[in-house]
Design goal:
This protein is mainly β. It has five helices and 27 strands. The radius of gyration is 28 Å and the shape is elongated.
Length: 529
């Protein structure tokens, strides 16, 4: 269906933190196809897209469902996720309705299906089916075959299904299923309490069906994946769907069918919007005009010996406690080199790569020489102990795909601590509140002692340090260069060591500050005695 919305040409508001500017980028790989097409505008023209149904146009929507009972269209804003319209489905009391509607797609070995769904207030959670992907022998009808086990040559499928317990699961037909009817497979990457659905809110669902390669023994490299609001919640591997590679995924099956042997207990509505089928991960819609664009912001401290420690923190910017999912890469830039250390307990025998905050805390001070967590890069809680899908390190490179885990709802959540000799670039996506947001930029390391970021370490920076002396929490801009949380003599030493104005000697601290510093020195001497 043609998109009727006007193209939003404005870039999102630039956000400056130190010398960081977050700007939209074309994200590659996991961050999602939808990031390339804000509001899915023009997504149907992408070569990886097999089908796009935005339901903006009433006539086109009605032509698609071809007069079937219980199907409808709405443009009521509260029931449209994006654009000018949505599919409105009525489940009729005492019946299984609605029946399925199918759309042919180009045959493929792997397909991703993404859409948005909402259930009405007071919805009675009777178990019902949802959209899915089907493979049928060319020329065979897409429907039918319930209760018939696939033989590897005739069919296979996977759709979403909602149980009486309000938990979404895979409903899949494949040759190795346990009975005549398809297998119900629950999300296996999260605590199930985290995926219990609620009425009156939109969810972004995505499922992936990857057929196995029937030419490679033992024919079990098929996969199923499920995302909810951009968070990977289910992944099943080593599955066998077919005995011949000629049997490919070739149908979208739309469904809100109630049953097996039960029927809807009341008349009730649900809504679906923005259906996309593609051969790569799609992800939630991108919304560059959102006033709540999540950001990734760095906080810098100088460690000495030419090293900086940078804490990257995700901010929701919406005042809400919600989960995060981050798919981010960090890389040294402009000559900067990311530092990676091992905890060497027994050289050559017991050596640990440290990539999580828990391990950094565990090994801190251990080994020969002692491992120093402050001088190593790793991922931070709650991400490093949450739903970790990928956490990898390479030469001058770090990558994470992780969510904030069980009970992990935050407005602000630290993501990564990166130790570097210079600048660090970052790129990827943050998913939140059923939307996908890209984040990219370069964290440029200022000269140690340059509080006002004018490129000089001079009297202006000294004045800032002096004005904030003994103050807690002002950050780099307030003169806390070593990240200790308080502006003190250690920060003055960094400033003095790098003092480089247009000319002149290093100024001494003001008299009151000298008295305070002297008191600290005296206290230290007394303690030593």
């Amino acid at each position: 269906m043609e998109v009727k919305r006007a193209l939003i040409s404005e870039a999102p508001l630039s956000i400056v933190v130190l010398v960081i500017c977050l700007v939209p980028v074309v994200a590659a790989g996991r961050p999602g196809l939808a990031l390339r097409y804000p509001y899915d505008q023009g997504i149907e023209n992408d070569p990886s897209v097999l089908l796009h149904l935005d339901f903006d146009d009433q006539q086109q929507t009605e032509a698609w469902y071809a007069g079937k009972t219980a199907y409808g269209w709405t443009d009521a804003p509260e029931n449209v996720f994006a654009g000018g319209g949505a599919l409105e489905i009525q489940q009729i009391q005492g019946t299984h309705l609605p029946s399925d509607t199918t759309s042919a797609i180009a045959a493929t070995d792997v397909a991703y299906l993404r859409w948005y769904a909402k259930w009405q207030a007071g919805y009675d959670w009777t178990a019902h089916k949802r959209p899915g992907l089907y493979a049928r022998v060319p020329g065979a009808p897409p429907g039918g075959g319930a209760g018939e086990r696939p033989d590897g040559y005739d069919k296979y499928s996977c759709r979403l299904s909602i149980g009486f317990d309000r938990i979404p699961h895979f409903y899949t037909y494949h040759p190795d299923q346990f009975g005549d009817y398809g297998d119900s497979l629950l999300p296996n990457l999260v605590d199930l309490s985290e995926v219990v659905l609620e009425d009156s809110r939109w969810y972004c669902f995505e499922i992936m069906l990857k057929a196995n390669d029937a030419d490679i023994l033992p024919f079990r490299d098929g996969e199923l994946k499920m995302w909810i609001d951009g968070r990977l919640v289910g992944h099943y591997e080593k599955m066998r769907f077919r005995e011949t590679n000629d049997l490919k995924i070739n149908w979208l099956s739309y469904s809100a069918y109630v049953g097996g042997d039960w029927v809807s207990q009341q008349k009730q509505n649900l809504w679906d919007d923005q259906i996309v089928v593609a051969t790569e991960y799609i992800g939630p819609l991108a919304d560059p005009a959102s006033p709540y664009w999540p950001t990734l912001t760095p906080e810098v401290k100088y460690l000495g010996d030419g090293l900086y420690g940078v804490t990257f923190t995700a901010h929701g910017n919406d005042g809400q406690q919600k989960s995060f999912f981050a798919d981010m890469s960090f890389q040294g830039a402009n000559g900067g080199v990311i530092q990676q250390a091992k905890a060497v307990i027994i050289p050559g025998v017991l050596e640990h790569n440290v990539d999580t905050e828990a391990d950094a805390n565990l090994y801190d001070g251990q080994g020969t020489p002692p491992y120093e967590k402050d001088r190593d890069s790793y991922f931070l809680e709650p991400f490093s102990s949450g739903d970790v899908m990928a956490l990898t390190a390479g030469e001058n490179y770090y990558h994470v795909e992780a969510g904030t885990g069980a009970g992990g709802e935050y407005e602000v959540a630290p993501l990564a601590y990166i130790v570097t000799t210079g600048d660090v670039s970052f790129s990827g996506a943050i998913s939140r509140l059923a939307w996908n947001y890209d984040a990219a930029g370069v964290a440029e390391m200022p000269a140690p002692g340059d509080a006002n970021l004018d490129g000089l370490v001079d009297g202006g920076d000294y004045t800032i340090w002096c004005d904030n002396y003994q103050q807690a929490g002002p950050g780099w801009a307030g003169g806390d260069f070593n990240g200790s949380g308080i502006v003190d003599g250690g920060d003055y030493t960094i400033w003095a060591d790098f003092y480089l104005p247009s000319g002149g000697a290093v100024p001494e601290p003001a008299a009151t500050v000298l008295i305070a510093l002297g008191s600290v020195s005296l206290l230290r001497r007394r303690w030593r005695i």
